[in-house]
Amino acid sequence: MKDYWQKILVVDDSRVVRISLREVLESAGYEVTEAEDGQQALTLIKTRGIPHLALVDLHMPRMDGFTFCKKVHQFCDMPVIMLTSEDDETTVVQGLEEHAEDYVVKPFRKQELVARIKRVLGRMESYSYTFDPIIEIDERLAVDLPNRKAFVETEKLSLTPTEAKLLYILIKSAGRTVSTEYLLQRVWPLEDAFEDRLHAHIYRLRKKIEVDPKSPTYVVSDWGKGYTFPPKVKA
Q: What are the strands, taking DSSP E only, across 139-203?
C-alpha cells in the first residue's frame, strides 16, 4: 500500500542527491518537496505546512542541518532523519541525541533508507488534521504553528515555543490520549522535566485558546494518563 498522503521534505544542497531521493521516495509512494538548505526549508514549511518527515543534510550553505532542526523543533515535533556524508562518531551521537530520529550516512542504500523512513513514520499517529500552514480546528480556533500564532475568534495570539510544540503533538494525535511521560520526553528531550512544569504550560495554553480554561474542550485532561485533543469533525 502506497502512502500518498505522507509528505517528505528533502533538505540537501546537492541537486543530484535531491533528484535521486525524489525518485526513490516517489516510487515508494511519498509526496516529496525539496529545499537546498535549511533556510529555504523553513520558508517552505511556513508557506506549505509541516511535512510528516524531513530528510536533512548536515553541511549546507546559509543554514546547516542541526540549526534547521533546532528552529523547527521550536514550534513542532516533526521527525527528522539526518542523511549526510558526515560519519564522525561525535557528530552522529549529537544528531541522534539532540535532533533526529535516525542518522544515515551517505552513500545510502535505497531500500534501506525507505525501510528506515517507514519505521520512523510507523511510530507516528494517523493524522486527523492536515498540517497546512494554518490548521483550521473549528469555526472558533485556527493555529499557525510555524509562526507560533493562534487565531481565537477575532483575536491573534502569540504562542511560546513550548505551547506550539505541545499543540503540534496533541493535534497530531487528535482523538487519542497522549501520556504525560511522552509529552515530557518529546517537549524537553534533553532535560529532566517533571509533571508540574508540563501542567504550568498546559494551564497557560488553555488560558489562550479555551472558552473556559477551567472546563477545557481542546486540551482535555485524561486524569492519571495525559491529555487529549478532539478529533477533526468530518463535514
A: 141-144, 149-152, 155-158, 177-179
pTM over 0.85: yes
Give yes or no for a contact between 166 and 194, defined as CB atoms under 8 angstroms apart. no
The matching CATH number, chosen from 3.30.750.24, 2.40.40.20, 1.10.10.10, 3.30.300.180, for 135-228 is 1.10.10.10
Contacts of 131 (CB under 8 A, 6+ apart): 49, 50, 51, 145, 171, 172
> Rounded to an integer, what distance in angstroms lies between the CA atom of residue 31 and that of residue 149?
27
Helix (H, G, I), strand (E, B) or coil at 223: coil
Beta strand 7-11 with 31-35: parallel, antiparallel or unpaired? parallel
Among candidates 122, 117, 112, 75, which has minimal Cα distance to 100?
Answer: 117
Pairing label, strands 141-144, 149-152:
antiparallel
**Tens digits of per-residue pLDDT, 125-180?**
656 677 889 999 999 999 999 999 999 998 999 999 999 999 999 999 999 999 99
Residue with cell 524531513: 54
Helix (H) or strand (E) holding 109: none
Given its phi and psi angles, is residue 31 left (phi above 0), alpha (psi -120 to 50 degrees) or beta?
A: beta
Q: The domain at 7-122 falls in which architecture?
A: 3-Layer(aba) Sandwich (3.40)
CA–CA distance from 137 to each of 100, 152, 153 (Å)?
28, 10, 11
